[in-house]
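Page 37, top half.
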Amino acid sequence: MEKENTLEFRTVYECNCWQNCDTWHPLASVIQLGKPLSECHAVRFGFYTVLLMEDCTDDGLECGRQYCDYTAATAVFLRPGEVFRMNGPLVLPAQGSVLAFHPDLLFHTALKRHMGDYHFFNYRKEESLHLSQREAEKLTACLGYVADELRQPVDMHTSTILSRYIELFLDYCVRYYERQFITRENGNQFLLEQTERMLNNCMASGELRDRQPLRATCVARELGLSEAYFSDLLKFETGMKWEEYLQMKKLEFAKTMLLQPENTPDVVARQLGYESVRHFCFIFKKMTGMPPDKYLYSAN
């Protein structure tokens, strides 16, 4: 059923044909939207795609916009082969721009080596980037640089220059996502409180003792977030990766447990899912500067 209702753009050329655009380069394009998609339920691009959509709330393309977000434009980032679908009458809006670039364009470029650093290509559409007017104008200017280079004759420098302009565009998106984390501060704190409550419940109930270590994927799912977005939010708010954050919370809980006479280091280690009491004591001393038994003595 999905295949029947999903429009496939396997090549950049096919994407250009959809909007009646010239193909200046077979592996990259900047397309101005003007022809809406309404004859299908979803669209799949066979290459990296950034949809820079002008305000389109009326078309059901809010993409997770919150009350604290800007409304001038929205940027959605799609991996090659990812299906994009929205609620509402249109799959894509009639206004905005599309940056399309095939992974092969990046061959032997610096961007290829760290393309994975742009985590927002793994975000859900509900975690899109919402832009102010000034931010949207800056990204549009970057797309202009890409478009100008595409119109130059292809030579040995083309891929390098295009990749650098695309990298500049993506780096601005990193900056604006960090700004969005700032403007969503209250909502982010609520998510962190939910995360901490979830961890405390797991540790208190002994769930960590009987199963695999709690993973960021599971927590993100409970919060209704992608793992990539949750990990970036956690890093921005706490400065820690998930493994570091989990270790810190387990040690905080361990300190509380050790204040109760019935909780020996062996009991705490098993309760919190450490592989052995020896491993727990090693981690505890490394993080606090003293072994669990001396911590208990100093606390009393």
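Page 37, bottom half:
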Amino acid sequence: MKLNFFAVTLLWLMALVARANDGVYFVNGNQIVPLQETDVEVTKEVLTISICDDGYARVDVLYEFTNRGLAKVVDMGFEADAPYNSDDDAVQKSGKHPYIHDFTVEMNGQSLPIRNYVMKSGNDEEDADFVPLDLNLWRDPGENDDEWTGLLNKQTKEHINYAYAYCFKANFKEGKNVVHHTYRYKMSGGIYRHFEIPYWLMPAMRWANHQIDDFTLRIKAENTAKQFSLHKGDKDENIEDMWRLATWRLVDGAGKMHVLKDKWDNEYYEFSLRNGTYEWHVKNFRPTENILITSPESMLYYRDDFKLGRFYDRTASVLVPYELMEETDDGPKFSTDATTEGILNSRILRNLPYANRGYVFKDQKLANYFKSLWWYMPDPSWQQSTADFTEEEQEWIKK
């Protein structure tokens, strides 16, 4: 039976969230910061970002602060940029971001109440001031306002970008204080990228010591497998120097990593992680860049070694290289008669969900092919089953 795959939709299956030839930005992750000058220092931070199959990233941050002065109350805040190109770009008068959920803060074991409002967004030149906007004075620009996505002052006609504020009062005792902070946020995406997870590290420099004395970043794939990348740096860029401060290590689960170059020779760390965690730990950390965790297919697409199945994600199914499509009167389509290394391409595609879970193939041609994909990690203990296949994968196999 001949499979009939649908043109560009399959060619860029990860672009289901995109708008036209653009991407969709939902929201960023961020540090919590003081809203006024303080002598409180960040002595330790453990940041865990879990990449999930539901389209969300889950964030868990454990801070240890040191108050070297007397007990005090410090106003603290979290800035979340407004979305754009999404289905919910209208300003939320409640002050709660439409794509952030389950936002919690505990300090020294006590849950803290959160105050939400809309404020002017910070930028590269100045930090956010966390001053609430009077939304009676501002409105969403109309379609004739140069497609501006921020807010328009009704009187002065000033345009601004806005953000959502999550603020709370923190009662610091003398010495060590522990803050536990959690939330979920929608992953962004677009053409060539199934997901993007932006996270701002640099606001941590606003604390008294202008660094994080002991910093740990953990990226986790819990009860799933994820292939993702981090920009290692272009020539002479600060971000490359930042990553040289420490090395990555696999702390649990099955994982692989290497350095990947795109067609412009920009370098990325590429990770393949199944039910596990990669960790990066550094002392006296002064971040010089924010980070962006992405699915890696945009770096792979133009490479000569982009084999069928070079990128795979459980919720996006597969990226089929354009070179494997055939031009027809109805546009480019995937031919099941074509082969890769003597294997029908349709057979490779059908077996991708199994390879993603570590299935050990008995067919020697399939076994050799998947061993040639760097992300493949055989797991002899995995019992062949479709019980945990995602909805996308179930549909993929039926096709």
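Margin note: The longest strand covers residues 212-233.
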